[in-house]
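ok, trying the design again with the full structure, not the truncated one.
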C-alpha cells in the first residue's frame, strides 16, 4: 500500500511548525523562511480585513464612530471578514419583515447589539454587502 493511499481519509493534526499524520508520520516545512512568509502574508491579510471592517463601520454612521464598539466582537466572531458578515443576510428577499428581516436573528445574539438605532444602521449596512 502506497504512502498516499495510507493518508487518504486521515486528517493531519496541526502542531507547531509541523504536521503529524494520524499514522505518526511527520512532515516538516521546507524551511523557516517560507513559514515566516506565510505568517507575514496571513497577518497582512488580517490587517487589511480589519481596516476594511473599520472603514465599513465608520461609513455606516457617517464617521461618528458609534458602531466601533462592535468592532472587537465582529473581528472575533467573523474574522473581520465582510463576506462572512454578508452571509448573515436572512431569507426575507421580498422585504415583508422590513429592514430587520434582512439580517438573521442569530447575528444580533452573537454581536449583542442592544440599541435599536445601532441595529438599524447595521442592518442597512449588511443589506448592501
Amino acid at each position: 500500500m502506497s504512502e498516499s493511499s495510507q493518508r487518504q481519509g486521515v486528517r493531519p493534526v496541526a502542531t507547531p511548525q509541523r504536521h503529524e499524520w494520524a499514522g505518526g508520520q511527520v512532515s516538516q516545512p521546507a524551511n523557516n523562511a517560507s513559514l515566516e512568509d506565510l505568517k507575514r502574508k496571513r497577518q497582512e491579510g488580517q490587517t487589511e480585513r480589519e481596516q476594511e471592517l473599520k472603514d465599513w463601520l465608520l461609513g455606516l454612521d457617517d464617521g461618528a464612530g458609534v458602531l466601533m464598539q462592535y468592532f472587537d466582537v465582529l473581528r472575533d466572531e467573523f474574522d473581520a471578514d465582510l463576506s462572512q458578515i454578508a452571509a448573515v443576510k436572512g431569507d426575507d428577499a421580498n422585504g415583508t419583515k422590513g429592514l430587520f428581516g434582512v439580517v438573521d436573528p442569530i447575528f444580533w445574539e452573537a454581536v449583542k447589539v442592544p440599541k435599536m438605532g445601532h441595529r438599524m444602521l447595521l442592518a442597512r449596512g449588511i443589506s448592501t454587502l
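Keeping the full-length input from now on. The two ends are 50 Å apart (CA to CA).
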